[in-house]
Amino acid sequence: MPPKDIDPVETLEWIDAINSVIDEEGLERASYLLTRVAERLNQEGAVPSYNLTTPFKNSISVKDEAKMPGDLLMERRIRSLIRWNALVMVLRANKNDDELGGHISTFSSAATLYDVGFNYFFRGSDNHLEDMIYFQGHCSPGIYARSYLEGYLNEDDLDNFRREVTKPGLSSYPHPWLMPDYWQFPVVSMGLGPILGIYQAHVMRYLSARGLVPRNDRKVWVFCGDGEMDEPESKGAIGLAGREQLENLIFVVNCNLQRLDGPVRGNGKIIQELEGAFRGEGWNVIKVVWGRFWDPIIEKDTEGKLQEIMDAVVDGELQNFKAKGGAYTRKNFFARDPSVLEMVKDLSDEDIYRLNRGGHDPYKVYAAYHKAVNSKGAPTVILALTTKGYGTGSREADNTTHQVKKLSLENIKSFRDKFDIPISDSEIEKLPYVRPSEDSPEIQYLKKTRKALGGFIPRRRMSSEILKMPNKKIFEKLYQSSGDRKISTTMAVVRIITDLLKDNNIGERVVPIVPDEARTFGMEALFRQVGIYSSQGQKYEPEDADKVMWYKESKDGVMLEEGITEAGAFSAWTALATAYSNYDLPMIPFYLFYSMFGFQRVHDLSWAAGDAQARGFLIGATSGRTTLNGEGLQHQDGHSHILSSTIPNCLSYDPAYSYEVAVILQDGIKKMYIDQKNYFYYITTMNETYHHPEMPKGSEEGIIKGMYKIQSSDKPKIRLLGSGAILNEALKASDILNKYDIESEIWSVTSFNLLRKNGMEIERINQLDPLNTKLTYVEECFADDDIPVIAASDYMRAYAEQIRPYIHNDYITLGTDGYGRSDSRKNLREFFEVNDLSISRAAIYSLFKKNLISEEKIKKIYKDLNIDPSKPNPWEV
Ligand SMILES: Cc1ncc(C[n+]2csc(CCOP(=O)(O)OP(=O)(O)O)c2C)c(N)n1
Ligand SMILES: [Mg+2]
User: Quick one: what percent of the chain has pLDDT higher than 90?
Assistant: First the structure.
């Protein structure tokens, strides 16, 4: 409750005083004076009443609006055609029974927000410095419709909206994977656009701070829905944007007040709520609430009564005003106060209905964008009030409008009439596209505006500079044995990254990224060596300034230490991993993270990175359910390879030795940055230290394909496959087996996922052409031997199970199914049954099943090995 006014006359004097300052000296002076007055209050210890929100009205007053220079009517005609073609595209896609879907209402509410951008603000790609625009996914028909008028898409293309299997059609939503020369940013999963856009702007500043791209006024525009802002990802990183004063970032939130099921905030005001949230994080907030038809009415509101109603009305009612029309609005809005009702007495019900919302008024939107692109020192969010389903007759602001894919003939006709589309009643049922001739004033105008802004968008660059391979010695160093030293694969990868950072060919492109975990991975030496990027430099002497590895933050720091945000760090990685396309600057980002907090935490972002054709390295450090031993259930990853295998262009590896790491990284750099293949890499590394042998000659190919032999035998009776740290257990198992005269052959499996992929490919080739007798790589490796195979990894059995179809013999898989827990590595491996003894047990059992070991002998061996038949099952629930 606000405090009671005990002296209204005195209050009025203060208000009059500030009014006269506003009138005579302007707003800036008035707010300066009030800020000084508030400071006095602060000094006395009073809590100032500091409102984060302003009244529910346009942030830019009419007199301060920048004037839109273009031809309003011409632009309206063009926009109407875009609206029509977008509508028709969806209606045609849903005319038959294919159930293709599509959205009408989202774009219809956002058309003006995009159009003003296309006509005046969005920079094209002619100079390679195009603005980066994260289009709201459900608006895609509208973006295609514009490209159609531009002549880039034709009617067949539009007819192939959502038909991509038999024809190279138009993808449902922005998907670079499916339209690689068009869409840049995959966004339709709600919340990804906002977080990816923020980190894109952050990376843009990072790259310019390092002198890799010019610092210019290139912008990142993020268009999103008001419902979408509920996703934690949408608002989760706005603090970073405020803190880093990312003036290159503009959010446009289309506040049509509805989401899929109904109102976003029926009982409140989403615009006000977002204003508070963004302002609190240091953003410029520009509200575009009312259109220009409201201006003369608002001007009459000298007493503030209309404003009081505007402030009080909830979004659920605002929705009604568009759904139920002018008479309803007069009764339920203006009539709340007799003096306000009086203000609209000369307006018909139809006039009241037509009182437009800010987001549908090109003048208001222009003024907002103009202010946003010229704002300095902070990111900007534009909160634009619109109507969902704008122009769709009875479906406008209807609670079900989101999913409308078909319109009644009546509604189609009213749409045509509202937007003056030149289609007669006799033609309308055919739902024709409309494109004026090439030399028409409309098409000429459209092309001229885009030319002036640097060309058409969206467009995506598909190829870019080819990098030179780094010095081979960086990798070859690790081909040697580690000698007496015990090291971990995490140490190996960090050593390679450190050397790559100094490489003459690619050093400046390498970016280590961590989410507050550098010390965990032994990367702290990099703090001082390359510096941690900080947009503000370092304004303090670090606590450890006298140490060798001090915490160095600097404006041109190379390392991205993103703090505890895996989603943020991954988004930064994505921006760098796609820099080859968005900046024509291939970057080599290495994102190191706790493998448990990788895919499992941010899988939607990794899926989007695949769609965006990211190229870079993800390093799941501290991996393995028993290898990272003391951390317990929420840390110990035994399934990230299963998750990574779901992404078609992600190549994943679980290497055991540092030379394997070296071979994989070298091959990855070649594939992604020289051959320009659209892969990204996921490599798990471990914190367990052990001795690393010298690389066996000629094993590179096998390491890359997924497995190679590390121990042969003249008369092997069993074949042991080990992956990652568990390879050592297989080696120890072979010693145990030797005691029983069982010789084994040992293979290091660097990737069950890749072996599986190869298997699927070859199997399919053979099936399609039955006379083919091609062998899978696994079959090639295990050609004519008749010996059983045992596989063990630090991942769930499903990981090793993947190659079962290609093993034509008994095959037993061991893995770490079940929840992790903390204990010593030794105990954990025994518990999960991936230790030397369990591998030996599986080997002996499979030989017994093949009648190669007698009943008597197996009993003796089991006794010898203390095998306990009542041992609890580790995945028991
Ligand atoms: C992560 C995620 N969850 C759910 C959906 C399904 N979905 C698609 S659009 C939509 C409503 C969007 O509302 P809003 O953000 O307000 O956009 P509008 O269409 O109103 O502009 C939902 C729930 C999705 N695309 N992504
Ligand atoms: Mg909405």
Answer: 91
Dump pLDDT digits (tens) for 577-630: 999 999 999 999 999 999 999 999 999 999 999 999 999 999 999 999 999 999
What value does the mean pLDDT take over residues 325-333? Answer: 97
Whether 91 contacts 369, CB under 8 Å = no
Q: Residue 554 — φ and ψ, nearest 5°? A: -155, 160
User: From ligand 1's centre to the CA of 649, what distance in Å?
Assistant: 26
Question: Is the whole-model pTM more than 0.85?
Answer: yes
Closest listed residue to residue 390, CA positions, set 113, 111, 140, 94: 111
Question: What whole-number distance in Å separates Cα of residue 438 and Cα of residue 458?
Answer: 21
Q: Which residues of 213-232 are buried (b: 16+ CB within 10 A; e: fewer)?
A: beeeebbbbbbbbbbbbebe
**Strand 486-487 relative to strand 690-691, pairing:** antiparallel
**693 C-alpha vs ligand 2 centroid, how far in Å?**
59
Give the per-residue pLDDT at 39.
82
pLDDT at residue number 35: 84
Long-range contacts, 189-192 (Cβ 8 Å, 24+): 189/137, 189/604, 189/607, 189/608, 190/224, 190/225, 190/227, 190/228, 190/231, 190/234, 191/228, 191/231, 191/232, 191/233, 191/234, 192/233, 192/604, 192/605, 192/608
Closest CA to 560 of 616, 604, 479, 603: 616
* Distance between CA atoms of residues 736 and 861, nearest Å: 11
Q: Encode pLDDT of 663-715 as tens digits.
A: 999 999 999 999 999 999 999 999 999 999 999 999 999 999 999 999 999 99
**Would you say residue 1 has pLDDT above 60?**
no
What confidence score (pLDDT) does residue 49 get?
A: 61
* DSSP per-residue codes, 770-785: TT--PPPHHHHHT-S-
Say whether 46 sits in a helix, a strand or coil.
coil
Q: Is 317 in the pocket of ligand 1 (CB under 6 A)?
A: no
Residue 212: what are its φ and ψ, rounded to 5°? -85, -25
Q: Is 279 in the pocket of ligand 1 (CB under 6 A)?
A: no
Length of the chain: 877
Distance from C-alpha of 423 to C-alpha of 415, rounded to nearest angstrom: 11
The answer to whether the CB of 520 is under 6 A from ligand 1 is no
* CB within 8 Å of 25: residues ≥ 6 apart: none
Q: Is the peptide bond before 458 cis (omega within 30 degrees of 0)?
A: yes
Query: What is the spatial distance between Cα 241 and Cα 571, in angstroms, rounded to a whole number?
Result: 13
Residue 823 has pLDDT above 60, yes or no: yes
Q: Which residue do the tokens 């946003």 mark?
A: 372
Determine the residue type at 313: V
Q: Which of 88, 188, 68 is nearest to 135 (CA)?
A: 188
Torsion angle, alpha carbons of 490, 495, 496, 499, to 10:
160
Mean pLDDT value across residues 562-572: 97
Q: Which ligand is nearest to the CA of 103?
A: 1
Of 260, 261, 403, best ligand 1 pocket probe by most atoms within 8 Å of the beta carbon: 260
User: Given this model, what pLDDT does residue 168 score?
Assistant: 82
Cα 226 to middle of ligand 1, angstroms: 9
How far apart CA 705 and CA 759 sit, in angstroms, is: 11
Pairing status of strand 132-134 against strand 249-255:
unpaired
Question: Which of 114-128 are b and which e, b meaning 16 or more Cβ less than 10 Å from the residue's Cβ?
Answer: bbbbbbbbbbbbeee
Q: What is the pLDDT of residues 550-561, one digit of tens each?
A: 999 999 999 999
User: What integer pLDDT is reported at residue 2 of this predicted model?
Assistant: 61
Determine the distance separating the centroid of ligand 1 and the alpha carbon of 261, expressed in angstroms. Answer: 10
In angstroms, rounded to a whole number, what is the distance separating the alpha carbons of residues 107 and 118?
A: 14
Cβ atoms of 680 and 651 within 8 Å: the answer is yes
CA distance readout (Å), 537 to 37, 206, 242, 294, 554: 33, 12, 16, 47, 4
Map tokens 């100079």 to a residue: 127
Residue 199: the pLDDT is 98
Average confidence (pLDDT) over 447-463: 95
DSSP H or E run through 748:
strand 744-749
Ligand 1 closest atom vs CA 260? 11
